[in-house]
Q: What sequence folds into this?
């Protein structure tokens, strides 16, 4: 789902404060719509929900009065208690063909309630509304589809890839994976399992701990999103596996159905990628050992750390508190393995904004981020001198 769905009155008020306007995935409706006959109510709303489902999905919020800029002017709740979510769902699904998956949520407010209809993009599209016509959402409008557009939707759905795919990269004596959601809906609780290797032992290769997706799954991966993450060194797998490497990708779809895809690789096919440790890898190992010593030291002051977390907690790309991160960066002369860091972690470590962190990740560490990528030298990247100096001091640079 690539749009915001409110679940409470606070969410509605947040939308009003932000100035969320109607658009390709959002429609506001007055509660006065229920003053019409049922067939007109269901007919009008069936146009809206099928238009969303035939396009990229969206929500209809009933109980909102708009201003002239299509934003929330005021909340005017539904006062008729018989106009509830079950009644509305039954009426809508009865007049939509083929069957459509929607969800309707009730938000109770002073004086009545609001109904939120969520119509995600459908794998069963195109859908007909009550008038037996096909519709699609075009920014603010709901337009009838032409015959060729209906055929295009059928071809799009038939060719839509399903769910997640896994890719592996053997490079420089190390193994890493990428998971990409190639479907049109989010996937949940995504993890991998390598036959013959304990996930916990893989996580331990990256002390102080790389938990996801080994001992803790990725909770959600949105459509089009890719998660890159390191695995372990080539020698590690040579010790645990004879040659064949069977990797199982596990995830659940939006309906809670559990899915598994399996991939088979052979270590001998990638043997030429293995080599002796490069200097930066030696530095990485030394940095990891230094981090372990720091971790043991921090354990001795656990009571103080608890107070610090409560007063100064700030999430980072590394899931450290702000105070702990400051200690590691400034007090221990630690250099971090930049090619394995997320852009959020780079932003925290270098104390730069997200845009600058993305630029550093995409240009300085392109080889590890993209297949066929080419790293730029730090001197060739357009950055302020003080940030370049922080990069040199705090990150392990590629050869």
A:
């Amino acid at each position: 789902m690539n749009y915001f769905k409110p679940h409470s009155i606070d969410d509605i008020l947040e939308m009003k404060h932000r100035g969320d306007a109607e658009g390709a995935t959002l429609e506001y409706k007055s509660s006065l719509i229920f003053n019409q006959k049922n067939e007109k109510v269901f007919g009008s709303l069936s146009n809206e929900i099928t238009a969303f489902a035939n396009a990229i999905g969206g929500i209809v919020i009933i109980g909102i009065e708009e201003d002239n800029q299509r934003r929330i002017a005021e909340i005017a709740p539904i006062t008729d208690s018989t106009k509830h979510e079950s009644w509305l769902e039954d009426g809508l699904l009865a007049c939509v063909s083929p069957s459509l998956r929607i969800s309707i949520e009730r938000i109770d407010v002073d004086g009545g309630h609001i109904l939120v209809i969520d119509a995600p993009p459908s794998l069963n599209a195109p859908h007909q509304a009550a008038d037996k016509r096909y519709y699609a959402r075009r920014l603010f409008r709901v337009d009838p589809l032409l015959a060729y557009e209906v055929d295009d939707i059928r071809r799009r759905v038939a060719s839509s890839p399903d769910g997640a795919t896994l890719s592996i990269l053997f490079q420089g004596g190390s193994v890493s994976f990428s998971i990409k959601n190639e479907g049109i809906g989010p996937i949940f609780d995504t993890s991998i399992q390598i036959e013959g290797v304990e996930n916990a032992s893989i996580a331990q290769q990256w002390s102080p701990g790389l938990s996801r997706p080994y001992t803790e799954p990725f909770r959600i991966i949105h459509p089009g999103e890719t998660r890159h993450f390191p695995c372990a060194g080539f020698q590690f797998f040579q010790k645990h596996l004879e040659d064949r490497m069977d990797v199982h990708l596990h995830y659940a779809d939006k309906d809670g159905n559990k899915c598994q895809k399996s991939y088979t690789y052979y270590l001998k096919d990638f043997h030429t990628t293995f080599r002796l440790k490069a200097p930066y890898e030696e530095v990485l190992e030394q940095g990891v050992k230094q981090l372990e010593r720091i971790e043991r030291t921090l354990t001795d002051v656990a009571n103080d750390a608890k107070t610090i977390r409560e007063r100064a907690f700030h999430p980072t790309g590394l899931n450290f508190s702000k105070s702990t991160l400051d200690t590691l960066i400034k007090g221990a002369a630690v250099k971090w393995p930049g090619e394995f860091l997320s852009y959020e972690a780079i932003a925290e470590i270098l104390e730069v904004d997200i845009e600058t962190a993305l630029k550093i990740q995409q240009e300085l560490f392109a080889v590890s981020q993209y297949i066929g990528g080419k790293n730029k030298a730090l001197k060739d990247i357009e950055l302020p001198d003080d940030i370049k100096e922080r990069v040199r001091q705090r990150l392990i640079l590629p050869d």
